[in-house]
Amino acid sequence: MKNTRVRPIQAADNTATAAVIRQVLTEFGLNREGFAFVDTELDSLFENYQAPRAAYFVAEVDGKIVGGAGFGPLLGGDASTAELKKMYLLPEARGLGFGRALMDQLLPLVKTAGYTRLYLETIPEMKDAIRVYEKYNFKRLDRPMGDTGHHGCQAFYVRSMVSA
Asked: Which residues of the chain have pLDDT under 70?
């Protein structure tokens, strides 16, 4: 049995976490403009998620970072809407329950931070991730919210935090 855990990101995790995100984005052909691959915050996730009303968690297997997810204010959105950000898992970490574990860590914090909605953007090809989102009552939207700069994303979801 592998030793798995989800924990808050630490400054020493920045390089490994950015590498995981870039690897997954490359796997799906998203290593280009219009996707998180070019986000300036990638190399300093710890620092960027220390802001009020934000958090980021990493997933580990035997001490190796294999994924993560966070949330923060939706850029270009209203103060009541958070965005689920940078939720990626390496292929070997999928199917181990990390998607659920990350959501179970993040959702109570999103609510405690005072947000009433949680928004996310993805691509239709990330079918496993979409299944997790739908299990957590994310509903599909016809168009994006806010101004994330991820104009390449084609699937948009939002979840009410009020009834959660």
From this structure: 1, 34-35, 37-38, 149-150, 163-164
Q: Is the pTM of this model over 0.85?
A: yes
3-state DSSP of 102-147? HHHHHHHHHHHCCCCEEEEEECCCCHHHHHHHHHCCCEEECCCCCC
Q: Give me the domains of the chain, ranges plus CATH numbers.
A: 4-160 (3.40.630.30)
Q: How many alpha carbons fall within 13 Å on the CB side of residue 24?
A: 26
Helices vs strands, H then E, count in the chain: 4, 7
By 3-state DSSP, what share of the chain in percent is helix, strand and coil, each rounded to 5? 35, 30, 40
The letter for the amino acid at 25 is L
* Cα–Cα distance measured from residue 124 to residue 154, given in angstroms and rounded to the nearest whole number: 7
CA 8 distance to own-chain centroid: 13
